[in-house]
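Issue: copy button drops trailing tokens. Both records pasted manually instead:
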Amino acid sequence: MHLIASASYKYCPQCGGELEERLLKPGEPLRLVCQTCGFVFYIDPKLAVIGLVPLKGGLVLVRRAIDPGYGLWVIPGGFVDVGETLEKAVVRETLEEARLEVEVVRLLNVYSYKGSRTVVAAFITRYLAGELAAGDETLEARVFGLGEIPWTEIPFSSTKDALKEYLEMVKAGGLP
């Protein structure tokens, strides 16, 4: 079994020696190990957040202005910075991408997928203030009615899964 993204790393961050893939323990994935100093370079997951923003009877989606997924629709979100709480990251990303101030209501779910380095925590938020508009990394921001979600223009499994789960909760009357 090969490492995800192992080809991206060639040299040890400790001593500059060459890295090679090695099996350190049976049942675990291959690890990058420095041939010179023995440093083990663990390829850990990246943590991202998305914030579902109910607004005007629908949900806020933004059209991406960056890759991956340039020009496609997603829930506002992004990567969590070191030292940042998940909730602060949701608030920050929603403000950056949709120009909306929100507060976190609750965790919806956490999504991870085989073969992906990204783990996505999805939150339900409450709108507080701001005018919906595109931000730095978005081309457009708008509210889609719950029956108008552009499913064929959504690039990420986590976005689709979170939207489906949210819509099931709405249908079952499980949301305030």
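Record 2 (pasted manually too):
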Amino acid sequence: MRRVLITGKTSFIGGRLAALLREHPEQYAVDQVSVRDGGEDVDFSQYDCVVHCAGLAHVTRDVNLTALYFSVNCEMTLEIARRARQAGVKQFIFLSSMIVYGPPAPAGQERYIGPDTPPAPDNPYSQSKLAAEEGLRKMESPSFRVCILRPPMVYGPGGKGNYALLSRYAGYLPFFPGTAAPRSAIHVDRLAEILRGCIDSGEGGLLLPQDENYTTAHEMLRDIRARQGKKTRIFHFLDPLIRLAGKQPFLRKLFGGFAYRKSI
């Protein structure tokens, strides 16, 4: 029986993981808690593994929020990890993000992340995530394993971030540009299964999870609209305009390539 604590009571990923683990009550005892106070009220000594899903998740380039991002995503993470280690927790799993590698390519261009690609965070969110990773690695020991995951866009019912943005637009866009480049993504159920595997292994390390196949923005849009009973037309005459303004952050998010190489 593995005793698992999931931080982030309203976490999209954490909630799905908790539901998955509770399907196997003979293998896991699971609690999901809020840790806005840094885990001061949590008795970590009763757990074998902490899966840290809590954090400030919405990406923004507003430098005025840098302190807030570092406070929540870095300092709080390290404080919880310290409390967990002192209490004898054997494994700490941290959900970082693919965004630590920097932004997607300009719209219509490809970008692949390989095993030797160095992190290049370019906004307060990604910088705070990488800082947390670096702090956690310094805390690792044979008795306190640190497992870090850098997932790409996570999608599925109730998804947030870019997927939620695309879902909102899907209902109002009967047509869409054809501009596309490969993107890594992962379904929340697949990510939950990978997290379960990490818990079972008890090991540390760095994982770059993704679905078997790449996707594109307009493929996801068509899938979302199809589930709504709507058809979507792809208009390629818009592509030159998209590429012309392709370095804009919003267009990079939707149409720029950003994928893990299949070899990893």
